[in-house]
Amino acid sequence: MAYEGPSYEVVFRTEGFEVRHYPKRVVAKVAYSGENSGFRTLFGYISVNNKTAQATEMTTPVTQSTKIEMTTSVTQTKVDDQIVMRFLLPAFFSLKTAPEPTDPAITILALASGHFAVIRYSGRANDHNFETQRKELLDEFRPSGLTPLGMAIRPTYYGPFTPPFLRRNEAMYRIKWQ
Hints:
With 178 residues, the chain is mainly beta. It has two helices and eleven strands, in the order E-E-E-H-E-E-E-E-E-H-E-E-E.
């Protein structure tokens, strides 16, 4: 897979987790409810459904969380029965240069830089596996004196047709870092 991923710097590493610093990035965001797919809407935006009909490369990972937080490539969050999904745009875009969406449901915004505690795992990116890893990550970093600044984020790097044992998934929290 040759998709652009987010750049980051590992600033601390233990056997159980690492702390990464992610720079500021620009994302496309959509909120939806029910069975509508935010992924399809955002994929349409990067494919050419924007005011300049400019195709943009897909990036990785896809991320999900239960509250809106700084994320990496694609994020999906659930807030009051609505799901918020975000695609991280390629690094060369700024708020001024990102293609303007034709769909009024899509918003372009900048995510602030920040530090994240991260644990990596393989397998399916289902709720059960993520919950297990999220709890393990908290158990690993809390004794170090680190404080989460929001809800957990679920980055997934490979699509549903990749065998589970080859998939890269993560659980991450934005944290307060000295």
